[in-house]
Every structure is written in structure tokens, then in C-alpha cells.
Amino acid sequence: TKQIKAARKFDPILAKLDPATRRQLELLKFAGQPAPDDPAAADQLAKIGAEMSSIYGKGKACVKGKACLDIDKASAAMQKSRKPEELLGIWTAWHDSVGRAERDLFGKFVPLANAGAKGVGFTDVANMWKSGYDMPADKFEAETDRLWGQMKPLYDQLHCYTRRKLNKMYGDKVQPKTGAIKAHLTGNMWAQTWTYLYKELEPFPGQASIDVTPTIVKTMNDSKKMVKFAEQFYTSLGMPELPATFWERSMFDKPKGKEAICHASAWDVTFANDLRIKMCIQKTQEELEVIHHELGHNYYFAAYYQLPMLFQAGANDGFHEAIGDTIVLSATPDYYKERGLLKTVVKNEKATINGQMLSALERIAFLPFGLVIDKWRWDVYAGKVKPADYNKHWWDLRAKYQGVTPPVERAATDFDPGAKYHVPANVAYTRYFLARVLQFQFHRALCKKAGFTGPLHECSIYKNKEAGAAFWKMLQAGASKPWQDILFDLTGSRDMDATAILEYFAPLKTWLEEQNKGQTCGY
Ligand code: X8Z
Ligand code: ZN
User: Fold this and answer.
1) Ligand 1 pocket: which residues have CB below 6 Å?
2) What's the gap in Å between 410 CA and the centre of ligand 2?
3) Residues of the chain above pLDDT 90, percent
4) What is the per-residue pLDDT for 455?
5) At what angle do helices 465-476 and 317-329 cross, to 10 degrees?
6) Residue 388: how many CB atoms within 10 A of its CB?
7) Residue 8's pLDDT is what?
8) Contact 279, 264 (CB under 8 A)
9) DSSP characters for 368-400?
10) What is the percent of the chain where pLDDT is above 70?
């Protein structure tokens, strides 16, 4: 905070400075959550932040008469169970205990965090977060709405199909035919991805399986094996191996006998290629994809660690979240077969639609969720919602954008946003929404570099050195230039743009429209 303020004295002469110095001074303003001027307030902000994270990390879902579950165990139960009463029990236990415990702390956190943002020249934290994208804050907000507008028709089709299937599975009482989807039925604590509904939603049952979880369980007894597997994709592109210290200093498994924040993260602890991940790896396809995601962060760190400190960041934070996800888009059935995780690959139209459905339940279902968390926080930090309405506003937004509703009535004393990691951890979330869009733009550009001419969803850049070199070059630029310039260098476009994701999912969209014909969709 002191440095940001000290840098401010150069504002009058910014235009006279060389572009790199000017940009570093500019980037310094967004280098983290600034502390308020009053030392007591600064102390409180830090303490409350740590306290909220700790409560989340220690959180348990305790259902009467059953053993208490940490978030990983509760999630696993929600992925598997198809008993509405059991799902309701776990959902309610987690939200009631963790969410409510965060409520008062978060109420105190907001004005303190805002005071910090004000002290360095922003109106509030929302304004600070939205200003970090090389464009005015209101223009950035409008960009997110524009992107959502491009993708909403596809989401609406997926929502319509999913709601109908859930209605058939559970009946009108549990999941009505119209309106919103009940959050506890989606196979995910936050209804943010619906991947675990795949078996029930599979368009063409009886096709060759595309689920690699069983082979992971059989062949990868050690978590490190899964990480090695992911690393090999990056090295196949011509990127370096992870440093020896990565293997020594990372946390791959949940430590025995003590609490730990298991939410996956990636680090360069000393800003000098001291790469690490922190995870509690489980043996599933979803986790293998999360490992690829985290290594994407590590490879970004590795590519730019020699730049000046303030350029050691993603072109924007959405870029950082999109790197590993771009790699996962190349994990096609053919790729998994080549790597020994799938035995047979069948290629026909039915298999294509099945594969697209699995992917959409993760990537399309996520879109409005990726937007809603910060739509809510933007309103909260800007003072547009009062604490008494925090929870109501949360569910209003979730109903409006996601078409998702809580399974039981919620009260003003509940605080359901606090039950999602990034709220107590105060990590901005729009980055994940942007990443969903960007990863398909990157994928399309890299596939072109690789000389691939077929449909986008069949492309894999595995082992392709041309694509690898182009990707690495983008990573090496870090935040040294506005993201628009960096995006242009890779893709030839200066805008974030949803046409690539729509092109990728074109076959599924046509199929869903056919399935939903004559139905009353919408929420
Ligand atoms: O938090 C994450 C990563 C850590 S950077 C595992 N993600 C979001 C989430 O889990 O809510 C990845 C996708 C969205
Ligand atoms: Zn991430």
C-alpha cells in the first residue's frame, strides 16, 4: 500500500516516462488488496481475512446421525448420491454451518477492504477490480455482459435439457418441470458444473466410454503419477520440465492429522521459478484436469519469472486461468487412448454428441456461475445492497443468470456466498468466466498454428512444437503489454470473443435444439 501511494507522485509526469516504467507504475495499483490508512483498521482487515479463510478450510458438513464431512468428502457424496433427502441434508449442512459462520466477518470485511481501495484512488473494491483490464471499468463490465449475451442461447438449451432430465429422475415434487433447477440436484455443491450428471444425461447410452476415472483409479496409485502425466503434455509442446524443487516443495495430498485448505492453488513463492502446487489430489478425471489447470499457472510463472516483478502476472487474470484449461481442450479421446487411459475410441456422430455433452456440463454450465459471483460482489462492494439483503441478492442473481434456486427457503441470517471458497478467500472470480471464453480462442489459434483443419472439438495440439512455441511466447510476455496486444499476437484479434466456444459446441447446440423442440424452455 505504501508503494502504491509513493508511486502516485509520478502521476503528473507519467506521459514523459518510457512505456515500460509507465506500465509498471500503472500495474502497481492493482497488485493486491490495499490496506486502509488507519493501522488498527489495517490490522483488522488482515485478521478478518485470515479468519474467514480458516473457517472455510476447517468447514464441515454435519448431518445428524452421520460422520461430519469436509468439503472434498461432502462434494464426493453429492457427486454420487441420487437420493434427494441425502443431497438436501449435505447441501443444507454445508451452507448453514460454513456460510453462516462467515456472515458477520464478511459484513465487517467489506467496509475495511473498501477503505483500502479508496486510499489508493478507487471508489471501492468493485471499481478497483473492474479497473484492472486495460480499459475503463464500465466498459469492462459491458464486455462481460456482451460475452454472456453471445453464449446465453447455448446455456439456455443445456438448462432446458438438464431440467427435463432431472424432472424425469426425481419427479415434479423435487424438480418441477418449469422454472429454476434445484441447486442440490446438480452433482456439485455450488451447482457450478454439472459433470457428475453425465451418466443420466448421456445422449446416446451404450457408446464406448469416455470416462478415464476407472483407469486412473487402476493405474495411478500415487498422486505424483497424475502430476507427471500432466507435465508430459507441457513438455511435449517443447516447454521445460518442472524444476526439481517443484517435486520437493509441493503439497499433492491432504496432510494426515491436520487441517488444510484443499482448494487447489499454484504458486511461485519467491517470484524466481520456485514453482509449487497445493492440492489434495483425488483419483478422478476431474482432478486430472485440475492438475493441468494448476500446471498452467506454473508454466506461466516459469515463462515470465525473469521479467520485472510487476510484469510477472497474466496479461489479465483471465489469461492466467485459461492456460491449463486450453491444454485440457486437447485431451481428446484419441489423446487419452495414445496415453493409455482409454482402451477404445469410437468415432461417429453419436460419440461426438456424447463427448460434447460431457464437456458442456462442465464448461457451458459454468458460464453464468462464473459471472454471478462478482456481479454480486460488485453490487456489495459498491454499496448497492445492504447486509440485510446480501443473501437475497445472491439468490436473485443466481435465479436470473443461472436459473438455479436453493432447495429450501433461505433467510436473511443465511450467508450462502460464504459457502464458496473465493468469497471468504477474497479472490475475484470474473477471471474464471473470462478464462472460459479465452481458452477456446487460444485453442482455435493454436490448432491453426498446428495446421489442423478439421472441426475444433477434434483438435489436439499434443506434441506440436509450432503450437507450443506460440503458446510459450505468449506466456513469456506476462503482463508486459496490454492484454489486447498479447491476444492479438496469438489470435489476430484484439477482443475477447465467444465465437470460438460457439464453433466448438456447434454440433451439440443443433442436437439440443432438436431435443428441446416443443418444450417450454427458460427460467
Ligand atoms: O478455483 C479454481 C482453481 C484454482 S485457481 C481450482 N477454479 C474455480 C473454482 O474451483 O471455483 C477453477 C475453475 C473455477
Ligand atoms: Zn486457477
Assistant:
1) 264-265, 290, 293, 432
2) 30
3) 97
4) 97
5) 170
6) 10
7) 85
8) yes
9) HHHHHHHHHHHHHHTTSS-GGGHHHHHHHHIII
10) 100
